[in-house]
Amino acid sequence: MRKLLLLALALLAPATVAAQTFTAPPAASYQSPKQLVDKTPGDGVIRFTVKRGGIAANRDAKLCADYRPRFLYVRADLACPTLAVSPPPVIEPPVVVEPPVVVVPPVASDVDAALFANGEAAIQNRVIGFGFSARGNIGTLYNVPAPFRTDVATGLRRLGILADKDDVTLQGRAIGGFTVVVNGVRASNNALAGWSQIAGKFVSPFNWRGSTNGVDVDQVVSLAGKELTLDVGFTNRTRAAVVAGYNWSVDPDQSDLHKTLNRVPSAGTVESVMQNGAGVFYMSTSVAGAYAAYTGYNTPQVLGTRMEVGASRNADDVVQLVFPQMLIQPGETARLRFSLGIR
Question: Where are the domains of the chain?
Fold first, then answer.
């Protein structure tokens, strides 16, 4: 059954047929016995023939505005139907109840922290300060600005570990850092010792993130008293289980004195006694299976010789805290915690 569509006639100028001028008489509508085709597809105009008194004339009709071109039509009207147009509904804006604003006063803290434009970071409190290279290891490559304290008495404006007026990493240099081992492949970040193998950056003065051999490393530090605590996560981004190892290395020299008495008082702890009563540097963890080791000056990237509980050496050593290997499944994260500081 052919669908009837309403059209408005837009009668053009009189057409000439058989040498006669014919004007179509008024009519409410015309019915075509066949479908009417859009005259020029897309313009909404159709052509049909009107017969009156035996005389035929072609007429064009414009589609009503609410119809679409390229359709077939069987009926044409002189006027478009009047369409009842309903006003658009009024949509009230939703009533939003704002929750009360709770103003939390800042927590009082004596910790200064900054992330510098060169990618390095520093944190300090009233008694100790730590500087970090952009690789996440202890010791800045560049001078640090105020308010961070440095060993200016010996001309040092870089920052390693500064406590009680003495820098405890050699000449402020970054002989303090870490090594990550993934399936036997080692990568170290000890910048001024010449090792920057793990890409990463600080996302805040307290959080360094990097990645090596398919394992993401997330290092978060906190400072209380003379102790820095490091929480480190290792996330396996590969499709297979990996065996990961980790150790931290520090050369605990004073600014002008290089030898220290390095000893292991208990499992998971290594101490370095400073000369002239400057204090004791230590690294310690409660992770089962962790042990202390030592290696030579400026060789923090190698795995050193294990030191058993009770052992001691008076030497210019790099001391290490070595963690047991971790089996990490795909997508899983292994975490460990340790601390270092001065007492």
Answer: 7-77, 166-342
